[in-house]
Amino acid sequence: MQVWSFVNGNWKPGDLAFAEYRWFDLEAPPAGELEALGERFQLHPLTIEDCRSPRLHAPKIDDFGAYLFVVLQVPAATEGDFVEMEELDVFLSPKLLLTYRDGPIQEVGHIHQMLANGMTMRPGTDGLLYEIVDRTVDALLPGVEGIGNRLDDIHDLVLEDPGNNRSHDIVSLRAHAGRVRRLLTPELAVVQRLSRGEFPQVSEHNRIYYRDIYDHLVRIDLALENLREDAEVVLSTYLAQVNNRMSEVMKVLSVVAAIALPATVISGIFGTNFDNVPGLHSNWGFAVMMTAMVSLAGGMALFFKRRGWW
Q: What is the pTM of this model?
């Protein structure tokens, strides 16, 4: 647990006496630590239970009068094409900001470094919460752009080499973009409620900054929607390429079958069980039959070639 206290106009590490307000940041704390803070600041047991629950909760905001309990979904400190989300639970009152997460969140670590360096933040606990949420929302943009770039790469590969199966990658990226969007959609409502003066815990001079976060979330939501549409286009392109390749294969097989058809007919005629088949007892009968087969096959191949079918 990391603790910061706002004393004499500056953030200082530790739970200091005479602090105007404090920030408690807990990352997967040992048993009893969160519960002790809950007793100290009279936090509702259901909120403690939500924090401790291993299940991922949808973004929400609950008003308990003296404080707000806010659940947010933010990008976790991971690398790769996929944007992994981490739950950030927040208790907000004029004198207290308590954040809880099960795993590392890179942007929260950046806030700690900035406070240690003496950098200025927005005033109040709601101002510090703005700094955290703003950075976590902005951190989503590179991940969303990464998914878009990955889709563009797959699209180029599909056009260059349609033989490789890319459907799994396309569907996985599309499904991931959908999951992220489903998590962020309720967060739009949460940030909007924080920005419109519904709660006294958010001061008037900080509400406009939450509206700025809302605008960023709208951009990300639209980008995720466009990603799903782009994935549909890439998948359609891949299926069209597969169908074109299959059509080429079927065309070749049809031409081969058509060329072999006269030989099949001739061999069937001369293979009938009749004794008076012309040429059956001739020394030249087999040679004539083979010559007819080859001539017909060659003539048909030449005809198909001139028609552009071969």
A: 0.75
